[in-house]
Amino acid sequence: MAGSQVGADLWVSEYITPWDMYVHGVTKVLAYKKTAFQEMYIVETGAYGKGLVLDGKWQSCIGDEFLYHEPLVHPAMICHSSPRNVLVLGGGEGATVREILRWKTVEQVMMVDIDGEVVEACREHMPEMHQGAFDDPRTNLVIGDALEVLDTTEQKWDIVISDLSDPIEEGPSFQLFTKEYFEKAQRVLAPGGYFVLQAGPVAPVELTLHARLVNTLKAVFPNVHSYASHTPTYGSPWGFAIGTAEAIATQPDPDATNQLLEEKTTGGLRLIDGMSLLGIMQTPAYIRKAIAAETQVYTIKEPPKFFGKGALGQ
Q1: How far apart are CA 147 and CA 175, in angstroms?
Q2: What average pLDDT does the segment 20-30 reach?
Q3: Of all helices (H) and strands (E), which one includes residue 264?
Q4: Which among 158, 163, 253, 255 is annotated as catalytic?
Q5: How far apart are CA 133 and CA 209, in angstroms?
Q6: With a threshold of 0.90, does the pTM exceed it?
Q7: Is 113 noted as a catalytic residue in this protein?
Q8: What are the pLDDT digits (tens) for 206-228?
């Protein structure tokens, strides 16, 4: 292209819709492994630094991961105000645990990921992500099946965060976006607890998955709230959802939020403060309307099927 200098010969190409792609220029492949569950690349990109790619799908990178991990973790933690025990399902890079450990009230984090090889590769090659979270004495890393842990744990958790890879059919997690899974998560919540779900893209042309996931959560939890954060490397604003039996503060007071964060966290947040939390919680009208019009509930017999895979090539 005239006037442009291309800085990479290797590209991660990911289909966003049948007509749209997002392409990241790769300067170096740091790790590759075809595990028992998925195909993993850890790459260095020209613009956003190190990134994790699973089954051709972009997971996160150091350049903008805070725009995903902070909204995944902190809105529910703030709603609870004094979480002590937190369960993370997925979360291979360790950044979700990193954000949880900012809270001084947290006594224990259990992170359950099915793919130990991905976790170890992230621990080795992406220390900027976990920042030592795996070595914190409050962290209990379990390599195993999230469903099995939910079926067998007797502990009750103040916060349960579902930070799973997208539900593509060939991947390890497509059945973990269903009513049955959400019911298992609800069972292990302590009184006053909150369940958080990474709930897919919320671009207008990709909204079906998010609307159906929120509708499925509504079949399990009395109170559900959809919100989103724009993460540039996903090529789309990304949706989240909170489910709980408690009231959800959808118009939190910025000053009260800032005071809570100052008192109960170690700081270092780059996105979430009182004003940005208030903004994030204001779900746009087009998303609210799509959720209100949705009737389908995802089940084990009829789970979601996420569009799009990607490829690494020249």
Answers
A1: 10
A2: 90
A3: helix 254-264
A4: 163
A5: 31
A6: yes
A7: no
A8: 899 999 999 999 999 999 999 99
